[in-house]
Write a structure and sequence with these properties.
102 residues, mainly alpha, 2 domains, 6 helices, 69% helix
C-alpha cells in the first residue's frame, strides 16, 4: 500500500465515509474519486492532520523551554519509514542539538 498512494487514500476515504472499500468502489465514480483525492491534497483531514497539529503544539511548547529551536517536523512520526529505536532517536536528537550548540 505504501507504493500506491491512491489505494491508501481509497481506504482512508472509505473509513471517513463509514463504508467498506467494496461499497465505495460500487457507488463512487472515478471522477468523484479524483475530486475527493484532489480536495485531500489541498486540505488533508484525519490522522495526518491531527499529527501535524500535535507537532505544532509540541514545538511551540518545547520552544518555550529549549535553547535550541524545535520544528514541528522534528516531532512528526514518519509512518511510512521503518521505525527506529527510541534510544537511536534520542541519540540523533542529542547529536543534532550538540552540533547546533557549537
Amino acid at each position: 500500500m505504501r507504493a500506491n498512494p491512491e489505494l491508501k487514500f481509497e481506504f482512508l476515504l472509505a473509513r471517513t465515509l463509514g463504508r467498506t472499500v467494496s461499497e465505495l468502489r460500487s457507488t463512487l465514480t472515478y471522477a468523484e474519486f479524483v475530486h475527493w483525492y484532489a480536495a485531500y491534497q489541498l486540505d488533508p483531514w484525519g490522522e495526518y492532520r491531527e499529527d501535524v497539529r500535535a507537532a505544532v503544539i509540541g514545538a511551540a511548547t518545547v520552544g518555550c523551554f529549549a535553547s535550541n529551536k524545535v520544528r514541528p517536523s522534528d516531532l512528526m512520526v514518519e509512518w511510512d519509514k521503518p521505525e527506529i529505536s527510541q534510544e537511536a532517536r534520542i541519540e540523533g536528537y542529542l547529536a543534532r542539538a550538540a552540533k547546533k550548540g557549537t
